[in-house]
């Protein structure tokens, strides 16, 4: 689960991280009160969407010459003018895709005098099984570009869970970021704070880009992206309360209600599969035969008929879906349950696109019988290869 920048900053502030004063607003009426709370005279108006690259982003409605999604304002009047322009409009950034995202919240923040912009993130480094800091002096820009062009400028420091962030870790990080004096002192406090917040809140990613050295030599968290491990959300009511479903895919929200592992994708073949590995293989083989999957969907091991019905409805509700492939290996899952779920869903929502079903495993004969006797127009397939070829050609012919 992701949260907005202003929420991430409030969280980090509660741990003692140096964060600027700021106020989030949802409507234009709140601007005056927000500005009155800030020291001025420099303000920054920041679009709050769950995507990065906002500074260089463009508003769809405002044309190519208008300013981006993060704007520096030199007076309260300028803040107001920016809020008028930005709120409610659609911001397109490198990370939103061409459709962009509507800006429903703005964060008005105290402007900082920046000397240097650094990059600092924490993530779970699976190769060493530890939380690791990834830092670079090249902050403010795309870290992917830095990784590609100047990988030597990225330094990774994995933290031993037994000790937490040690003095030696801090020294390595400060050297990598060329931090001295007050900035190094701030860093000595900041790095353990970030690590503590990351571990305590079960984050999967905390990215501060940029972390800045201000002209007065002090450090400040200027941007914050924070993602949480969905499997640990049950023990963090405070984090769950920060969820903004307007930022999420409606189909994914619906799927999460039924505990389905679902990710929307750009293709046109809807997939209903059990098991993450089989789901990945199904997506791969669809691509191999020249088409693109519309989603990743793992209905799970012990899915009920209701769950299968919900899954099928989510797939058919997507107008981009031009064909559906049901690929089930019945181990714990029984093929007859899948068959009943599919039929129940089709009866409810209808079937306007070709459907290929491949069943194998427990109760496979019963499953096939249920489908064959249902009178539905289902193309049956014998194995994964056969199934993928059949759905790809059915979609191409349609
Ligand atoms: P994004 O990464 O989505 O583009 P950032 O929060 O990183 O958004 O902002 C983009 C740039 O805007 C930063 O790299 C920084 O140069 C500038 N900026 C952001 N917030 C402030 C601030 N409070 N004061 C001064 N400059 C800022
Ligand atoms: Mg940024």
Automatic annotation (TrEMBL):
<dbReference type="GO" id="GO:0042709">
    <property type="term" value="C:succinate-CoA ligase complex"/>
</dbReference>
<dbReference type="InterPro" id="IPR011761">
    <property type="entry name" value="ATP-grasp"/>
</dbReference>
<feature type="binding site">
    <location>
        <position position="223"/>
    </location>
    <ligand>
        <name>Mg(2+)</name>
    </ligand>
</feature>
<feature type="binding site">
    <location>
        <position position="117"/>
    </location>
    <ligand>
        <name>ATP</name>
    </ligand>
</feature>
<dbReference type="GO" id="GO:0004776">
    <property type="term" value="F:succinate-CoA ligase (GDP-forming) activity"/>
</dbReference>
<dbReference type="InterPro" id="IPR005809">
    <property type="entry name" value="Succ_CoA_ligase-like_bsu"/>
</dbReference>
<keyword id="KW-0436">Ligase</keyword>
<feature type="binding site">
    <location>
        <begin position="53"/>
        <end position="55"/>
    </location>
    <ligand>
        <name>ATP</name>
    </ligand>
</feature>
<dbReference type="InterPro" id="IPR017866">
    <property type="entry name" value="Succ-CoA_synthase_bsu_CS"/>
</dbReference>
<keyword id="KW-0067">ATP-binding</keyword>
<keyword id="KW-0479">Metal-binding</keyword>
<keyword id="KW-0460">Magnesium</keyword>
<feature type="binding site">
    <location>
        <position position="109"/>
    </location>
    <ligand>
        <name>ATP</name>
    </ligand>
</feature>
<comment type="pathway">
    <text>Carbohydrate metabolism; tricarboxylic acid cycle; succinate from succinyl-CoA (ligase route): step 1/1.</text>
</comment>
<feature type="domain" description="ATP-grasp">
    <location>
        <begin position="9"/>
        <end position="55"/>
    </location>
</feature>
<comment type="similarity">
    <text>Belongs to the succinate/malate CoA ligase beta subunit family.</text>
</comment>
<feature type="binding site">
    <location>
        <position position="274"/>
    </location>
    <ligand>
        <name>substrate</name>
    </ligand>
</feature>
<dbReference type="Pfam" id="PF08442">
    <property type="entry name" value="ATP-grasp_2"/>
</dbReference>
<dbReference type="Pfam" id="PF00549">
    <property type="entry name" value="Ligase_CoA"/>
</dbReference>
<feature type="binding site">
    <location>
        <position position="46"/>
    </location>
    <ligand>
        <name>ATP</name>
    </ligand>
</feature>
<feature type="binding site">
    <location>
        <begin position="331"/>
        <end position="333"/>
    </location>
    <ligand>
        <name>substrate</name>
    </ligand>
</feature>
<dbReference type="GO" id="GO:0050074">
    <property type="term" value="F:malate-CoA ligase activity"/>
</dbReference>
<dbReference type="GO" id="GO:0006099">
    <property type="term" value="P:tricarboxylic acid cycle"/>
</dbReference>
<dbReference type="GO" id="GO:0006104">
    <property type="term" value="P:succinyl-CoA metabolic process"/>
</dbReference>
<dbReference type="InterPro" id="IPR013815">
    <property type="entry name" value="ATP_grasp_subdomain_1"/>
</dbReference>
<dbReference type="GO" id="GO:0005524">
    <property type="term" value="F:ATP binding"/>
</dbReference>
<dbReference type="GO" id="GO:0000287">
    <property type="term" value="F:magnesium ion binding"/>
</dbReference>
<dbReference type="InterPro" id="IPR013650">
    <property type="entry name" value="ATP-grasp_succ-CoA_synth-type"/>
</dbReference>
<keyword id="KW-0547">Nucleotide-binding</keyword>
<comment type="function">
    <text>Succinyl-CoA synthetase functions in the citric acid cycle (TCA), coupling the hydrolysis of succinyl-CoA to the synthesis of either ATP or GTP and thus represents the only step of substrate-level phosphorylation in the TCA. The beta subunit provides nucleotide specificity of the enzyme and binds the substrate succinate, while the binding sites for coenzyme A and phosphate are found in the alpha subunit.</text>
</comment>
<comment type="pathway">
    <text>One-carbon metabolism; formaldehyde assimilation via serine pathway.</text>
</comment>
<keyword id="KW-0816">Tricarboxylic acid cycle</keyword>
<protein>
    <recommendedName>
        <fullName>Succinate--CoA ligase [ADP-forming] subunit beta</fullName>
        <ecNumber>6.2.1.5</ecNumber>
    </recommendedName>
</protein>
<dbReference type="GO" id="GO:0004775">
    <property type="term" value="F:succinate-CoA ligase (ADP-forming) activity"/>
</dbReference>
<feature type="binding site">
    <location>
        <position position="209"/>
    </location>
    <ligand>
        <name>Mg(2+)</name>
    </ligand>
</feature>
<dbReference type="InterPro" id="IPR005811">
    <property type="entry name" value="SUCC_ACL_C"/>
</dbReference>
<comment type="subunit">
    <text>Heterotetramer of two alpha and two beta subunits.</text>
</comment>
<feature type="binding site">
    <location>
        <position position="112"/>
    </location>
    <ligand>
        <name>ATP</name>
    </ligand>
</feature>
<dbReference type="InterPro" id="IPR016102">
    <property type="entry name" value="Succinyl-CoA_synth-like"/>
</dbReference>
<dbReference type="GO" id="GO:0005829">
    <property type="term" value="C:cytosol"/>
</dbReference>
